[in-house]
C-alpha cells in the first residue's frame, strides 16, 4: 500500500501541531505548498543544500550575542576557568558530535523522521519533555543503534 506524498505531508503537519513542533509543521507545510504549486523541481536543491543553509542560520543565531556585545571576553574566559564552563564545553562538543551522527543517519535512512517525530510527541505528552529538534533525536538514535550493535553482535 502506497501513500500519496501529499497525504504524508498533511500527516506530518498534524503531528507537528499536536506535538508542539512548529518547525516540523512549517517544514511540511512549505513542502506541501511546493508540491501543490508544481515546484517539485526545487526539491533536489532543497535536499542538497537545505541542511547547510539551515545550519548556517542556526550558527548565525547562536553567534548573535557575540556580535551584539552581550557576551564579553571576560565571560568567554570564565568558561575555561570554571567547572560549569568546562562541563558546558564538553556538553556542547558531545551534542555537536551526536548531531553530526544524527545527520549521517538521517541521510542514510530518512524515513526514521516519522519515528523521531512520534517519539518526540510521546516525550512531550508522557514525559513532560520539550522538543529540541530531530537532529539531536537522530543522534541519540544513532548512539542507541551503535550500542545495540556492540552489545548484541
Automatic annotation (TrEMBL):
UniProt keyword terms in alphabetical order: Cell membrane, Membrane, Transmembrane, Transmembrane helix
Highest taxon above the source species: Bacteria
Transmembrane feature ranges: 51-69, 76-98, 110-127
Compartments it resides in: Cell membrane
GO cellular component terms listed in the entry, alphabetical order: plasma membrane
Claim: Cell membrane is one of the keywords in the record: yes
InterPro entries with a match to the protein in the record: UPF0756_TM
Membrane topology of this protein: Multi-pass membrane protein
HAMAP family for the chain: UPF0756
Protein family per UniProt: Belongs to the UPF0756 family.
Protein's UniProt name: UPF0756 membrane protein C8J48_1097
